[in-house]
Amino acid sequence: MKRAVVVFSGGQDSTTCLVQALQQYDEVHCVTFDYGQRHRAEIDVARELALKLGAVAHKVLDVTLLNELAVSSLTAIAFRFRIMNRTPAAFRIPSYPGATFCF
């Protein structure tokens, strides 16, 4: 039996990966990271979508401890930037420090 694990956010890219994995593997499990995101509904939607598409299981891993490493606009409720020789557009791109840390 061929098995796969898909890191699944519920977004377009990871959904495409999940659909492909479901076509190529007998058993597919999904993992979503809880990094303390402000949009908590993302986790619920990811779980619902993963199971609806046919994943065997969906697990949520708590990685909120990474919030101690840096501040992110994805997790901070009130986020203020100090602009130093940078354009404001540079601050509009949401990122999460350590997002690829596990890989």
Describe what you observe in this structure:
The structure is a single chain. The protein is 25% helix and 18% strand. Strand 2, helix 2 (41-53) and strand 3 (57-62) form a beta-alpha-beta unit. Strands 1-2-3 form a three-stranded parallel β-sheet, covered by helices on one side. The mean pLDDT is 80. With 103 residues, it is an alpha/beta fold. The protein is elongated and about 40 Å long. The protein has one domain (3-91): Rossmann fold, CATH 3.40.50.620.
Q: What's the architecture, going by CATH?
A: 3-Layer(aba) Sandwich
Structural class computed from helices and strand pairing: alpha/beta
Proportion of residues in β-strands: 15-25%
Shape, per Cα inertia axes? elongated
Which blocks of ≥5 consecutive residues have pLDDT under 50? none
Strand arrangement within the widest β-sheet reads 1-2-3
Number of helical regions: 2
